[in-house]
Amino acid sequence: MVRTSSKKIPIVILSDEEDVYTEASTPSKHTPPLASKLHRNGKSIDSVSAQSKRRLCMCSEPDGDMRFISEPDIEDYGYFLRKKKPKADNNTLLHLFRSKRGLFVTDVAKTEWCERQTEFSLFSEEWKSNEGKRVGFGGGRRNNEAIKAGRNRHVQLQQEVQTLVELKVKSREDDMAMKLVNFINGVNQLVFDGLTRELPILSFAFAQGIWMVGQIDEVQMPRAKKDHNPILVEIKTRFQDTVPLEAQKRNGRIQLMCYKYLWNNIVAHAHHDFPCKQLYDYFELNPRRTLSKDLQAACDESGFTARSLGDVVRYYQNTCKMLAPASDMLVLRYESQRDHSVLYEEKVAYDEGWVKSEIESCLELWLGRREASFVAEDEQWKCGYCDFVSECEGYTDTDTVSTQSLASE
Ligand code: SF4
Known about the structure:
By secondary structure, the chain is of the alpha+beta class. It has one domain (11-385). It has twelve helices and nine strands. Strands 3, 5, 6, 7, 8 and 9 form a six-stranded mixed β-sheet that branches. The protein has a three-stranded antiparallel β-sheet with strand order 1-2-4. Helix 2 crosses helix 5, helix 4 packs across helix 5 (115-125) and helix 4 crosses helix 12. The longest helix is centred in the middle third of the chain and has 23 residues, at 246-268. Bound molecules: iron/sulfur cluster. Iron/sulfur cluster binds next to helix 5. This is Exonuclease V. GO terms for molecular function: single-stranded DNA 5'-3' DNA exonuclease activity.
């Protein structure tokens, strides 16, 4: 691992959106995105506007012809979805929506929440480019305000330990390098300061043979000096000061365990079988391509010299080599959006068998091996918070949805 000195602040580069690592689109070859770089302890944040991110999202999938229809109505989604249901291997959800991007951890969580809603939202997101219309997971438009407040809180938490600064990326290689440098700097911060936030994670899930990506809210080093296993923390914010329902907690546990699963995969393969070739092949990257001046400067400021993506990947691998597996004890925390008080906190025991089965169940849908299922009968209250209720064939009951409180996360 490289660090400039004990006093010099390393740069952590922040992606322009949760693009490669979470929900938003990967940068286009044709329209290089703005990106951000992040300095710890700096003074200001210049995040890319949501407008530009959405525009990229709409332009970034040259192979996705169905995603460029303009001015759609939400009522059209059901028809659209029925017409475009994946049929061949190269027409699966994974291929259509996560090609060269990897499966997001949030995809696994969303799929567990409601498979049919996941399908609807994947197709609808391609149609929606307006922030006001954008469909959110598990809450719908009525909860846009709460979702925005949750995002703001996460930015606030990140700014407590890091500072975001924009930089431009000019190629897919730049974009990948940016994420890896983010990870490297986040790990440096974890090691030296004992804590980091919004840590991007990119890992090849060997058992499933797919790339998965995510962003861990917080990673802490344990207080006990003899313990070297980092503790992963997922932070949810709630609009209402209520304890989350069991379905929500279960969903949060899956997300957390996915992060741990990916973390352990990276660590386990850091010394042997590090999947460099798979990385370049899957994301269609040229390891010898020269990085932009901005990226090269960012690497310099982070304390290592890199002129190409291949250079960054070597530092990335070295960083992974120094990591210990994440702690088997994970932390799921819910806090109030009103005053940030902790409403509920759970220490979650890692269950690898369970999380693997959840990922595999998710993949059955994403690889087109079966049809999407609807929510279970005892969880039909979820439908009351779903934007696609008028389109959904699985929704039948109107009485069960209003009595439960699904506070926004
Ligand atoms: S209405 Fe209910 S079953 Fe249908 S997609 Fe929405 S949450 Fe799922």
